């Protein structure tokens, strides 16, 4: 199948978090359509594991869908920031735990038909408690959740964030 071609693009709205653009897209058959695009900074997330085969998770409320659930610590990459450094920073800020050496696990595009968002998932096989999280408002609680419980928590809808689901399912299926 031939590619769709972005012939022109203009910004409709911009904030520190995203840009909403309108593109003139040419379809393979020559037709044109207006297509809105959400341009976003990269996101990183980290799965910290411990010796008891537990993963460090946040229990939090997401006001947009009005749901509660477990998520991995995550956040946006600051301009010029290294992805791995951003993953470590976000983990420490949100949990108070400093991850051990980070390894890249996967990169996902959670909504490629609408957004250029790219999420980079890392994992660490250890973490050291440093103190209370700097961003304590990020979650209601921080827990070490058994990896063996992850599939059931996903089935129950207690883990809903796509980037967290993808990351944890890879860790579980790899026999971690």
Could you please describe the fold and organization of this structure?
By secondary structure, this protein is an alpha+beta fold. The protein has 2 domains: 5-40, no CATH class; 43-173, Nucleoside Triphosphate Pyrophosphohydrolase, CATH 3.90.79. The protein is built from 3 helices and 12 strands; from the N terminus they run βββββββαβββββαα. It has helices at residues 83-95, 150-155, 162-173; strands spanning 5-14, 18-26, 32-40, 43-48, 54-62, 67-71, 74-76, 97-99, 102-108, 119-124, 127-129, 141-146. It has a 4-stranded mixed sheet with strand order 7-4-10-9. The mean pLDDT is 94.
Question: What would a concise description of this structure say?
Answer:
By secondary structure, the chain is of the alpha+beta class.
Question: Helix and strand layout, with pairings?
Answer:
Blueprint: E1 5-14, E2 18-26, E3 32-40, E4 43-48, E5 54-62, E6 67-71, E7 74-76, H1 83-95, E8 97-99, E9 102-108, E10 119-124, E11 127-129, E12 141-146, H2 150-155, H3 162-173
Task: Please indicate the count of domains.
Answer: 2
As a percent range, the share of strand residues is 35-45%
Would you identify the regions where 5 or more consecutive residues have pLDDT less than 50? none
CATH superfamily of the largest domain: Nucleoside Triphosphate Pyrophosphohydrolase
Summarize this structure as a short list of keywords or feature phrases.
3 helices, 3-stranded antiparallel sheet, 176 residues, Nucleoside Triphosphate Pyrophosphohydrolase, 2 domains, alpha+beta, 12 strands
